[in-house]
Structure formats: structure tokens, C-alpha cells
Amino acid sequence: xxxxxxxxxxxxxxxxxxSAQMASHSPQQQAAFNVPSAQLSRPVGKPVAxxxxxxxxxxxxVREEYVIFPYAKQHDGKIPADMEPGIRKxxxxxxxxxxxxxxxxxxxxxxxxxxxIKKAETDFRSQFDSPAAYQQFMQAEYHGSEQAFRQxxxxxxxxxxxxxxxxxxxxGVSATExxxxxxxxxxxxxxxxxxxxxTISIIPPANPSGAQMQxxxxxxxxxxxxxxxxxxxxxxxxxxxxxxxxxxxxxxxDHKWVPRDRMPPEMLxxxxxxxxxxxxxxxxxGKIYVIFRMxxxxxxxxxPLTEVKDKLRKELEKEKLNEVRSAFDKRLHQxxxxxxx
Length: 341
Hints:
Layout: H1 7-19, H2 27-32, E1 37-39, E2 47-51, E3 54-57, H3 58-68, E4 78-80, H4 84-107, H5 114-125, H6 131-142, H7 146-166, H8 175-184, E5 190-191, E6 194-202, H9 210-228, H10 233-243, E7 254-259, H11 265-273, E8 283-285, E9 288-298, E10 301-302, H12 305-334, E11 338-340
Antiparallel strand pairs: 1-4, 2-3, 2-11, 5-10, 6-7, 6-9, 8-9
Helix pairs in contact: 1-3, 1-7, 3-4, 4-7, 5-7
């Protein structure tokens, strides 16, 4: 499901938020999480919002905060202080949205089959290591009431079902829409003329004397002699790792793809005449001596739709989903009475 609403996650997160308050950590673990943090207060059922007369509490709010920032449960229930206001705001908006969706599902008389409720309950139980752990959860969250637990599952499934029909199913991107976007945004899919090169560079000191330049030229001549003996990119790279003096030596001299406009003029002119697999002569770029290997010369072109369609579809569907969800949220709020408490 594209909306990503998880029944088990929503229910289970409330248990995690409570149990995280009692979690113990080694000094090493605590030191690793050294970002200033805000301690989540333990929820006590304090009202935080009222939606068409239905009161939402800090239990709901903290549950959602842990959904947004699940790492808090590993760190004594803490959220980084600079993130806490934003997470709290997002969590409050989400629990209000969920309540509005649930109320809308009830108005529409949306139903969930008993079989689906039973399966969700079974799936949820399977997350626990033992029956005792499950009973601990039930006692902590629902005072042992199976009925209250099933009502929670049914509520989550109703929200899920309505979101599927109102958000997910309206967020698909057709092949026609995909092609239209591709055609209208050609610049996104064009790539410049580029060169895949490896280099060996001999670099004299800053403000070199004549003698220092002669010494650099001597090293460069020796490097060039050895480079001419290489036959493959791997051999050239191993030599670069050994004798090159630029930062790319640790990557076997590999610069990956260099666009034409970033190639130094002294290297561009010979590069335009070289074939793939050829090596340049010894070139002086400023005061630096350079030898480069042309692994691939790629003319400017355009990535075909067939190569980008899957990634592009996911991107466009995510954008459309956010738009559809936002519009649905706006419709739900139009005639709703929402009060912050």
C-alpha cells in the first residue's frame, strides 16, 4: 500500500512508547546518542485535541511521535531537542487526520469483515516472543480487554480501507501521464558530453623554483614511461595508486564522468581526438604534469524513457499521493470542528 499505513505498527507503537520509558542502556549506548534531547513525558491520558467532540489524548500523541521517530524507544524515550517541536506538530496533525478519516468511514458505513479483523489480530499476536509477552501488552494497554483491543484493530482497518479508496487508488500514474511528463521536461533527462578518465598527476611544490620544476618533470617522465607499459584500466589505476600525487590516487586515479565544460583545455583538446582505451601523452596543466587514460567518451544525449520509467513513476506517484492526501485532508476539515486543548 502506497500510503504505508500499518495496523500492527500503529497498535504496537503505543506499547513501545510506554516500555521505552523503562529501557536501560549501557554508558556506551548513551554516549553514542549524544545529541541534546527532549524527554517525552509519560502519557497519562491528558486531552490534547477535540475532533467533532471526540477527545484525543497524549497517549495518542506520544504513540504517533514514536511512529515518526522510532529511535526514541532505544534512547530512554528521548527525541533530539531540535527535532521535538516539529515531530510533535506532525504527530498532532496525524492523529487528528486519522480521527477525521475514522469518523468519515463511520458516516459512510464502511465495514470490515470479521475474517479480516481476525487475521489482523493473528498477525499482531505473532510479533510477540511468547504468550506471556502478549498478555503483558494487553494488560498494559487495554487492561486485559480483548474487546477493546479488537475495537482498536477494527478502527485501524477502517482507516486503512478508506485511505486505500480515497488516496492510494487515486494516486496511480498511467503510462500516458508518464510519457507526457517525460516529453514536457526534456532538460531533466539530458546529459552533457562527458569523459570517463583516470589520471596520474605529478605536482611540484607551491611557487616552485626552476630546480623543483625540473625535478617534477623528471618524476613525470618516469611515470609516463611506466604508464605506457600498462594495457588496461586496472593496470593504469594500480600505477596511479603508486606514483600519482593527486587525491584521485586512492581511487586508482578514477574521476568517473567529467563533463566537457570541466575538462581543462590542455586535456580537452587531446581528449576529443582519443579513442576509448587510449592514453594521452604527458601534458602540462598549469604547473602540474598529467597523464590520463580515456576509458570512455560519451557524446551528449538523452536518457530514454525506458531506462527511467520505473524510478520516474515512483517519484510522480509519491507527488500525486501527497497532493491527493492533502486534498482529502482539506475536505475532511471543511465541516469539522477541531479544537486544540
